[in-house]
């Protein structure tokens, strides 16, 4: 490895580590390389659906949901000794909700970018393209329908009219088979769970990092210290909410634990009710004097 290439690789990896969080970039400890996780910025009210309408599809149900986040596109790469002067990074590309042929198109675009940069470092440009250009490049719009067909292969339809083949043979075969493309979806149920779990986790992460005004104590607190009622969008800090629910529990209103906002009909979620049950147990153990809210 030429000294210039080695220095360029080290500088690029250090720059990526300083710009991106560990959730987005992880450097390999054993070789010059790493893993890049790209979470796309979806437009508002982005709808994703899965429908069992292929003749050979074992999935007979249907799924549709509006999501703010989808599982990331994952780029694993290793830098060869000749990078960046002569050789491109070796890489694989995976994503749970994109089809194999769509991933191949992304791989080809990464190849094109490498050619355009002509011997310069390219990983940052790859990340920018994947994050900012994937939806437009693949003509992905809402509503976005994922159809899972026989042999676990995927065919994708969207309102642009572009679709993939449902079988492993035919005109799409030359496009689909690329060793750099990895599909790790075990089943439709697993895919649906992954989409919903990831969306919920990312929404909570965003909520926890922002500040909100509690409508009871009128103090600003981080979302990690607050509870958000999804139906009505009201937010209260956990300390005030605990006091409010303690009073409700002591008054015997255990079944209908509602949002504290006057005349609001929203009720606690199952997760919130679980937290309330623990509060109730502690309340009974401590046997505090009955107080008014």
Automatic annotation (TrEMBL):
<dbReference type="InterPro" id="IPR001841">
    <property type="entry name" value="Znf_RING"/>
</dbReference>
<keyword id="KW-0479">Metal-binding</keyword>
<dbReference type="GO" id="GO:0008270">
    <property type="term" value="F:zinc ion binding"/>
</dbReference>
<dbReference type="InterPro" id="IPR016135">
    <property type="entry name" value="UBQ-conjugating_enzyme/RWD"/>
</dbReference>
<dbReference type="GO" id="GO:0031090">
    <property type="term" value="C:organelle membrane"/>
</dbReference>
<feature type="domain" description="RWD">
    <location>
        <begin position="11"/>
        <end position="137"/>
    </location>
</feature>
<dbReference type="Pfam" id="PF05773">
    <property type="entry name" value="RWD"/>
</dbReference>
<keyword id="KW-0472">Membrane</keyword>
<dbReference type="InterPro" id="IPR017907">
    <property type="entry name" value="Znf_RING_CS"/>
</dbReference>
<comment type="pathway">
    <text>Protein modification; protein ubiquitination.</text>
</comment>
<dbReference type="GO" id="GO:0016567">
    <property type="term" value="P:protein ubiquitination"/>
</dbReference>
<dbReference type="InterPro" id="IPR006575">
    <property type="entry name" value="RWD_dom"/>
</dbReference>
<keyword id="KW-0862">Zinc</keyword>
<dbReference type="InterPro" id="IPR031128">
    <property type="entry name" value="RNF14_RING-HC_Zfn"/>
</dbReference>
<dbReference type="InterPro" id="IPR044066">
    <property type="entry name" value="TRIAD_supradom"/>
</dbReference>
<dbReference type="GO" id="GO:0005737">
    <property type="term" value="C:cytoplasm"/>
</dbReference>
<dbReference type="InterPro" id="IPR031127">
    <property type="entry name" value="E3_UB_ligase_RBR"/>
</dbReference>
<feature type="domain" description="RING-type">
    <location>
        <begin position="214"/>
        <end position="263"/>
    </location>
</feature>
<feature type="domain" description="RING-type">
    <location>
        <begin position="210"/>
        <end position="293"/>
    </location>
</feature>
<keyword id="KW-1133">Transmembrane helix</keyword>
<dbReference type="GO" id="GO:0061630">
    <property type="term" value="F:ubiquitin protein ligase activity"/>
</dbReference>
<dbReference type="InterPro" id="IPR013083">
    <property type="entry name" value="Znf_RING/FYVE/PHD"/>
</dbReference>
<keyword id="KW-0863">Zinc-finger</keyword>
<keyword id="KW-0812">Transmembrane</keyword>
<protein>
    <recommendedName>
        <fullName>RBR-type E3 ubiquitin transferase</fullName>
        <ecNumber>2.3.2.31</ecNumber>
    </recommendedName>
</protein>
<keyword id="KW-0677">Repeat</keyword>
<comment type="similarity">
    <text>Belongs to the RBR family. RNF144 subfamily.</text>
</comment>
<keyword id="KW-0833">Ubl conjugation pathway</keyword>
<keyword id="KW-0808">Transferase</keyword>
């Amino acid at each position: 490895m030429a000294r210039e290439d080695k220095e360029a690789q080290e500088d690029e990896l250090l720059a990526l580590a300083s710009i991106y969080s560990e959730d987005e970039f992880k450097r390999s400890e054993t070789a010059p390389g790493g893993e890049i996780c790209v979470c796309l910025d979806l437009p508002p009210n982005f709808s994703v659906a899965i429908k069992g309408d292929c003749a050979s599809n074992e999935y007979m149900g249907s799924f549709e949901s509006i999501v703010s986040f989808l599982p990331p596109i994952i780029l694993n790469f290793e830098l060869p000794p000749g990078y960046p002067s002569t050789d491109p990074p070796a890489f694989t590309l995976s994503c749970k909700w994109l089809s194999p042929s769509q991933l191949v198109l992304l791989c080809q675009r990464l190849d094109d970018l490498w050619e355009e940069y002509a011997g310069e470092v390219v990983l940052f440009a790859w990340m920018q393209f994947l994050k900012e250009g994937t939806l437009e490049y693949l003509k992905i719009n809402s509503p976005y329908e994922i159809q899972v067909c026989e042999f676990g292969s995927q065919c994708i339809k969207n309102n642009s009219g572009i679709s993939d083949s449902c079988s492993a043979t035919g005109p799409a075969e030359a496009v689909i088979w690329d060793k750099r493309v990895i599909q790790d979806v075990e089943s439709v149920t697993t895919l649906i769970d992954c989409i919903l779990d990831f969306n919920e986790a990312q929404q909570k992460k965003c909520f926890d990092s922002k500040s909100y005004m509690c409508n009871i104590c009128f103090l600003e607190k981080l979302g990690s210290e607050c509870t958000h009622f999804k139906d009505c969008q009201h937010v209260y800090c956990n300390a005030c909410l605990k006091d409010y629910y303690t009073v409700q529990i002591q008054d015997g209103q255990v079944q209908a634990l509602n949002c504290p906002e006057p005349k609001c009909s929203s009720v606690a979620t199952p997760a919130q009710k679980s937290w309330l049950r623990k509060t109730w147990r502690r309340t009974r153990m401590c046997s505090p004097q009955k107080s008014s809210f």
